[in-house]
From TrEMBL:
Substrate binds at residue 428. It is found in: Cell membrane. Pfam families: Sulfatase. The keyword Cell membrane applies. The active site is at residue 313. Residues 266-533 form the Sulfatase N-terminal domain. This is Phosphoglycerol transferase MdoB. Keywords: Cell membrane, Manganese, Membrane, Metal-binding, Transferase, Transmembrane, Transmembrane helix. It comes from Dyadobacter psychrophilus. Its main location: membrane. One of its GO terms (cellular component) is plasma membrane. The chain crosses the membrane at residues 7-29, 49-70, 77-99, 125-148, 168-186. Mn(2+) binds at residues 273, 482-483. InterPro entries: Alkaline_phosphatase_core_sf, LtaS-like, OpgB/LTA_synthase_biosynth, Sulfatase_N.
Length: 610
C-alpha cells in the first residue's frame, strides 16, 4: 500500500516540477520581457504559480488515483494504461506549452480556447503565425515531449515494479478517499475562493503575472467557462443599427454642472456590500436600519434614482471603477485579458498624480477580483492578509469597522491628493456582526437588516472622525452599493432589487442638502466624477455624465439572462430566454424595448471583442 501512495506522490510531484520547468522555458523564450523585470519577480512568478501548478497536477492525478483502486492483485495493466495516459497528456500539454510560447508574442496573453477559432480557418491560422520560427518550434516540441515522456515512463516503470499484492478491502476505500481529497489541491486549498487567476496574480507588472499562470490550467478553464466564445447570443438587430441606437443615448456634452471644488481634491469611494435602497429611510425604504446614512443624506448630495448594473459584487466593481455594464451570463472580471483593456478611475487618477489605494477585509482573490485590481494602477492594495489574526472574526475576513479604522489611519499619513476605494463585507451572507444585536430576529431578513445597521454605524463613525481631519475640507467621499438585494421583501419587483443609494459628502462638495432625482446607473459614476475634476473621461464609452446638460436619463441592469430598462416614463424587465416582458410599468413605447435590446446586444458585443 505504501508503495502505491509513494508512486502517486512522486507522479504528482513530477508534474509540478515539469510545470515549473515550462515556466522557466517561457521566461527564457521571452527573455527581453523577462530582463525588464527585477530578478526577484522571476522567483515570485514561480512561487505564486506553484499553487496553480499543484491544482492542475491534482486534475491529472485523478485518473491514476481512481484506477489504483483495482491494483490489489494485478497491476501490469495499470502500468501499461498509465503509460498510454501519460503519453497522451504529455503530448497535449507539451503542444500547448510550445504553441503558447509564440502565441503570447502575438496576443499578449497565455493561450486559451480562443485558439480553437483558428481550426475553422486553417489558412488564416497559418497566416497568423507570420514569421514564427515553425521548424525550431517543432524541434523544441519533439525534444520536450520526449523528455517529458521519458521522465514519466521512468517514474511509472520503477514505482509500479515495487508494488506488492494486497486486498481490495484496502485499495478501494483508500484510493477512493484519496481521489475525493484531490478536490482540495484542485481548488487551491480550503479558502473561500476556488482556484482562479487571482490566486497567482501578485504584481502590477502584467508579464510577471502571466508568467505565473499555468498554461494547461488556463486553457482548460477557458474551455469549461466558454470564455473563448466569440458568438453573441443576444443579436436582435444589424450590428450597426444596434450601435446607432446606443450611441444616441450618449450625447457628447461639454457643459456639466459643477458641484465639487475645482482642482486636485482627495476622493474616497466606499462601496457598501448589498446596500439596497430598500433599507435606506432617506430613499423611502425601511426606517431606522441605516440611521447614520439617513442623517448624512440630509447634508450631502443624495442620488435617488441610482441603479446597479448587475447583481453580483464582481459586476458592480467593474461598473463603478471602469464604468462598464454588467453581462447577463458572464462576468468580465473573470477574464484578465479582457479587463486589461478596460479604462478605470484608479488608472486615470494614478496617471494624473493621485496616490491610489484599495481596501477590503476579505480575500481579493474572490470572484477573480484581485487580477482586476492589479491591472488598475492601484499603488496599494490592502486585503485580509494585511490584518492581524485577531481581527479575522468574520467568515469573510476583517469586519467593516476594522477596515475603516485602517483606512483612516492610512489617510492621516497619506500623500495628497489621494484616491482611495474601500469595499465593505459585513453585510454579505451570513450577515455576521461583531457587536451586540440591534435588530432582533434569527431569520435571514432580520440578520440582513442587522448587518446593514452595523455597517451603517461603522461608516457613520468613519465620517464623524473624518470631519476632524485636516484633509476633510479638500475631500469628496462617495458612498455607493456594489449591488442591491432581494431582501427585505418589502418590494419584490426587479427595479426595487437593483435600486441602490449613492451619496456624495465631504468638504470638497459645494452643493449640500441636495437630491439628484435623474435616473442613472453605477456605470455613470466614472465619467461624472472625472468631468467634475476636469480629468479625461473619453475612454469611458459606457458612462454618462449625470450632470450633463444634454444627458439622456436611463439605466440598464442585467441579471441571470435578463435585462431591465429604466426611463423617466417607466420601466420594463425582459426575459432573454423566452423573449417575454416579465415586468412593466409606465407608458414605455415598443421602441423603448428596442433600446434595451440594442444596449444588451451592443454591450455584449463589446465584451466579446475585448
Amino acid at each position: 500500500m505504501r508503495k502505491r501512495l509513494e508512486f502517486l506522490a512522486i507522479y504528482g510531484i513530477s508534474w509540478v516540477v515539469l510545470f515549473q520547468f515550462f515556466r522557466i522555458l517561457f521566461l527564457a523564450y521571452h527573455y527581453k520581457k523577462t530582463l525588464e523585470l527585477p530578478s526577484s519577480l522571476w522567483a515570485k512568478s514561480a512561487a505564486h504559480g506553484l499553487q496553480m501548478d499543484i491544482s492542475f497536477a491534482g486534475y491529472i492525478l485523478m485518473i491514476p488515483a481512481l484506477l489504483m483502486m483495482f491494483t490489489a492483485r494485478k497491476w501490469k495493466w495499470y502500468a501499461n494504461t498509465l503509460a498510454i495516459f501519460s503519453a497522451i497528456v504529455a503530448f497535449l500539454i507539451t503542444f500547448l506549452v510550445i504553441a503558447d510560447l509564440e502565441l503570447f508574442k502575438a496576443w499578449g496573453f497565455r493561450i486559451d480556447g480562443t485558439s480553437l477559432h483558428y481550426l475553422k480557418t486553417p489558412k488564416e491560422a497559418v497566416a497568423s503565425m507570420g514569421a514564427a520560427p515553425i521548424f525550431p518550434l517543432l524541434l523544441l516540441f519533439a525534444g520536450l515531449f520526449v523528455l517529458v515522456w521519458k521522465l514519466l515512463r521512468t517514474v511509472i516503470k520503477r514505482s509500479t515494479g515495487a508494488f506488492e499484492k494486497t486486498g481490495f478491502i484496502y485499495t478501494i476505500p483508500v484510493f477512493l478517499i484519496l481521489s475525493a481529497s484531490l478536490i482540495i489541491p484542485i481548488r487551491g486549498g480550503l479558502q473561500l475562493a476556488p482556484m482562479n487567476e487571482s490566486a497567482v496574480f501578485f504584481s502590477d507588472k502584467s508579464f510577471a503575472n502571466y508568467a505565473a499562470v499555468n498554461v494547461p490550467w488556463n486553457f482548460m478553464s477557458s474551455l469549461l467557462n466558454a470564455t473563448y466564445s466569440k458568438k453573441n447570443p443576444f443579436v436582435y438587430f444589424d450590428e450597426s443599427q444596434a450601435d446607432q441606437l446606443v450611441k444616441s443615448l450618449y450625447r457628447a456634452d461639454s457643459t456639466s454642472e459643477q458641484v465639487v471644488k475645482a482642482g486636485k481634491i482627495n476622493v474616497v469611494v466606499i462601496i457598501w456590500e448589498s446596500f439596497t435602497a430598500k433599507v435606506a429611510g432617506s430613499l423611502n425604504g425601511l426606517q431606522n436600519v441605516t440611521p447614520q446614512f439617513d442623517q448624512l443624506a440630509k447634508v450631502g448630495m443624495l442620488f435617488t434614482q441610482m441603479y446597479a448594473s448587475g447583481n453580483r459584487s464582481d459586476k458592480g466593481m467593474v461598473a463603478i471603477l471602469s464604468g462598464y455594464p454588467a453581462q447577463p451570463t458572464n462576468s468580465i472580471i473573470k477574464i484578465p485579458k479582457k479587463t486589461f483593456s478596460l479604462p478605470s478611475l484608479p488608472k486615470v487618477f494614478h496617471k494624473n498624480g493621485w496616490y491610489t489605494s484599495f481596501y477590503y477585509g476579505g480575500e481579493t482573490e474572490f470572484a477573480n477580483m484581485k487580477s482586476y485590481f492589479l491591472q488598475q494602477d492601484f499603488d496599494q492594495i490592502i486585503d485580509k492578509n494585511d490584518f492581524d489574526e485577531k481581527d479575522m472574526n468574520s467568515k469573510w475576513g476583517a469586519h467593516d469597522h476594522i477596515v475603516l479604522d485602517r483606512l483612516m489611519d492610512d489617510l492621516d499619513k497619506q500623500k495628497q491628493p489621494f484616491f482611495s476605494t474601500l469595499f465593505t463585507l459585513s453585510s454579505h451572507e451570513p450577515f455576521e456582526v461583531p457587536v451586540k444585536t440591534v435588530i432582533k430576529g434569527n431569520d435571514s431578513e432580520q440578520l440582513f437588516l442587522n448587518a446593514h445597521h452595523y455597517t451603517d454605524a461603522s461608516i457613520g463613525d468613519f465620517i464623524k472622525n473624518a470631519k476632524t481631519k485636516p484633509w476633510w475640507d479638500n475631500t469628496l467621499i462617495i458612498i455607493i452599493a456594489d449591488h442591491g438585494h432581494p431582501l427585505p421583501e418589502t418590494d419584490r419587483t426587479k427595479p426595487a432589487e437593483f435600486h441602490i443609494p449613492m451619496l456624495w459628502l465631504g468638504g470638497a462638495l459645494e452643493k449640500h442638502s441636495t437630491k439628484v432625482d435623474s435616473i442613472c446607473s453605477q456605470t455613470d459614476l466614472a465619467t461624472t466624477l472625472l468631468n467634475q475634476l476636469h480629468l479625461p473621461s473619453g475612454s469611458f464609452n459606457w458612462s454618462n455624465d449625470i450632470f450633463g446638460k444634454q444627458r439622456v436619463p436611463f439605466a440598464y441592469f442585467a441579471f441571470n439572462n435578463g435585462l431591465g430598462w429604466m426611463k423617466p416614463g417607466g420601466y420594463l424587465v425582459r426575459d432573454n430566454i423566452g423573449g417575454n416582458i416579465t415586468e412593466k410599468a409606465g407608458a414605455l413605447t415598443p421602441e423603448e424595448e428596442n433600446f434595451g435590446k440594442a444596449y444588451l446586444q451592443s454591450s455584449f458585443n463589446d465584451y466579446l471583442k475585448r
